[in-house]
Write a structure and sequence with these properties.
Length: 96
């Protein structure tokens, strides 16, 4: 997919630029985690880990809701209609 988006020219450079922040964070996080445990202890580290995970979850949830809202606006309908996958079974109206 990225090749289709970015083209053949400079493909490696584009992927490198996209991947660099993730690779740096993945390389630095064990050292940072060990430093926090050594400096403030395991109790504080657990709290910081829980706060970080909660912040990441909240960010993903907000991005998901924003995306669904944008998708619904483009589709011109309700968010539940826009979120339905093509070919997915539709709900049948209830009778009586």
């Amino acid at each position: 997919m990225p090749l289709a988006l970015f083209g053949v020219k400079g493909y490696g450079a584009v992927l490198g630029a996209i991947a660099t922040p993730v690779l740096v964070v993945n390389a630095a996080s064990p050292t940072a985690f060990a430093w926090i445990v050594d400096r403030w202890g395991w109790g504080t580290t657990r709290v910081l880990l829980l706060v970080g995970c909660s912040a990441a979850w909240l960010a993903m949830e907000l991005m998901s809701r924003w995306y669904e809202g944008q998708r619904a606006a483009v589709a011109g309908g309700a968010p539940d209609r826009a979120a339905r996958l093509p070919g997915a079974p539709r709900e049948r109206p209830r009778r009586g």
